[in-house]
């Protein structure tokens, strides 16, 4: 009789942990899609203009403000900052954010989530009048 009670409580505990884990995974997957989309946009922008432009930086700042992202937890890496790269050069962008997870008062931990974008530069010198810059948020 006692073993059935213990088994029932154990099964309920395992089920609750499983449901909470699934909920965290679904939330994390949604955040990963958001970061992946921003990284793909930054890479496509670099491919079009040959490098990281002021327009892409304005979009990055808008992304940070609309998503209410803690700037100290965000990291952005682009492969073509500051100046254009020649046609056919691969360009990349990585957006990493340390998402904070909290389990009440008992536990809090960060989960780093990274979105990566890749493209190939189609820059033709003189085709665009843009200002190249470095990522800032």
Automatic annotation (TrEMBL):
<keyword id="KW-1133">Transmembrane helix</keyword>
<keyword id="KW-0812">Transmembrane</keyword>
<keyword id="KW-0472">Membrane</keyword>
<protein>
    <submittedName>
        <fullName>Uncharacterized protein</fullName>
    </submittedName>
</protein>
<feature type="transmembrane region" description="Helical">
    <location>
        <begin position="6"/>
        <end position="28"/>
    </location>
</feature>
């Amino acid at each position: 009789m006692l073993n059935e009670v213990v088994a029932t409580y154990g099964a309920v505990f395992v089920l609750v942990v499983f449901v909470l884990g699934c909920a965290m995974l679904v939330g994390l997957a949604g955040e990963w899609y958001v970061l992946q989309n921003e990284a793909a946009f930054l890479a496509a922008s670099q491919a079009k203009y040959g490098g990281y432009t002021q327009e892409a930086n304005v979009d990055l700042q808008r992304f940070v403000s609309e998503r209410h992202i803690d700037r100290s937890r965000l990291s952005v890496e682009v492969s073509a900052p500051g100046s254009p790269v020649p046609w056919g050069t691969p360009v990349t962008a990585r957006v990493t954010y340390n998402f904070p997870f909290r389990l009440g008062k008992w536990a809090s931990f960060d989960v780093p989530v990274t979105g990566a974008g890749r493209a190939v530069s189609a820059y033709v010198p003189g085709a665009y009048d843009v200002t190249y810059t470095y990522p800032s948020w």
